[in-house]
Amino acid sequence: MPDDVPLEEPPRRINHVGRPGYVTNPAGPHIWDSLRIWEILLFVATLAPATIILLGDLPVRDRVIVAVCLVSILPLYFVLGRPAIMAENRRRGAVYIALLILLFIPATFITSDVTFALFGLCPQCFMVFPTRQAMIAVIVLNLVPAISYLFLEPEPSWFGFLTVTLIVIVFSWVFGVWMEGVSRQSRERAELIEELMSSRAEVSRLSAERGALAERERLAGEIHDTLAQGFTSIIMLIQAAEARSDPARHLALAVQTARENLAEARALVAALSPAPLDGSTLDEALVRLADRLREDMGMTVTFTVRGESRPLPPPIEVVLIRAAQESLANVRRHAAASRVDVSVVYGPETVALEVHDDGCGFDPAATGGYGLRGMRSRVEQASGSMRVRSSPGGGTTLIVEMAE
Q1: What are phi and psi of 338, to 5 degrees?
Q2: 184 vs 34, 88, 187, 255, 373, CA distance in Å?
Q3: Which residues cross the membrane (predicted)?
């Protein structure tokens, strides 16, 4: 079977948090890194005025009320705000914003210095709601200090009041539109990443299926060219023996064919087994293959190493072992050779396997066997190259070259 092609882990569902900077994808920063920016702004916008007011000259009771209101916004955020933002729970978010406004109102009516907190509170509205709903909450937040200004100031300036309120609302609207655009881009980017991950997993799956299909095609050809033909010959010989008065000759040929078929079956099973590395080096594995051929066929088989031998990546070793197995199996079945030379050539960035026999040879352009096609497909899938030089009566040389 083909080398196992590990499928990548199926893409997990990406959590699209529709807020600025929230793109939760495996290649980007985690969502908490983006959320931390807005949390820091909320911390500064609430703790800074609370600290200034505590150190100010207001009555102690007013200072305590203002500080408690502002500081209470932080635990409210962690209990309701953050879970609502992460889960995009609008109902829970509405409760969070409502309680936030209720905490902000009494502090605003005590002192206008708390308006600095709006820098941290307004973004919270856009993080919980879409732009339109967020604008309503922002307007309410900004009207609170405006109304308190009208009540607390003995002679309020209507022009200043309207100007400041209009500027804050317009700024909030522009800020909200910007945040909505960033949010949309973040979601689109997250969806694109998810699609790319799905496509990559699909490509890996199809690649594995293609390899399995190619190997099944190779096995079908091997069985057709060897075992099926052998069994057909055996049947024909036995039928011929039944028609003869002296079947000894045909039966002997049938037994010989059956033995050859058994050897073919064993060779096919050996080719399907895992590459015979067994923790040894590529050179040692090739030596064992050469020794096995010499013992089985009684021919001269040599093995040489050119260049400095070194460990290779496992996929390259498997391809070279498979190529050697297939090449030596072809020598065993078809070459009628008396000598086989196997060599490995280690280059600076490449390694090549060469198998040469002095057998009958063949015409590479006219061959219809599945073995060479399957071998070439396996080598090319591993980004290697394969060359076959042969001619009738001139022997055969096979060269497989792999880049590390």
Answers
A1: -110, -15
A2: 15, 14, 5, 77, 51
A3: 37-56, 63-81, 93-122, 134-152, 158-179
Q: What was the pLDDT predicted at 391?
A: 87
**Res 183 pLDDT > 70:** no
Angstrom distance (rounded) from CA 141 to CA 128? 15
Tokens 């080598």, located at residue: 379
222 versus 204: which is more confidently predicted? 204
For 139-157, the pLDDT digits (tens) are 888 777 777 766 666 665 5
Cα torsion through 268, 269, 275, 280, rounded to 10 = -110
Q: pTM (2 decimals)?
A: 0.42
Report d(CA 8, CA 315) in Å as an integer.
17
Which CATH number does 275-404 carry? Answer: 3.30.565.10
Section 8-26 average pLDDT: 38
Helix ranges (H only) for 309-382 are 314-330, 370-381
Residue with tokens 């308190």: 148
Helix (H, G, I), strand (E, B) or coil at 118: helix
Secondary structure (3-state) at 43: helix
In this predicted structure, what is the pLDDT of residue 28?
40
**Residues 370 and 217 sit within 8 Å (Cβ to Cβ):** yes
CB atoms under 10 Å from CB of 237, counted, come to: 21
- Measured CA to CA, the distance from residue 76 to residue 351 in angstroms comes to 66
Dist. CA 338–CA 258, nearest whole Å = 23
Q: What is the CA radius of gyration of the chain?
A: 40
Check if the beta carbon of residue 221 is closer than 8 Å to that of residue 370: yes
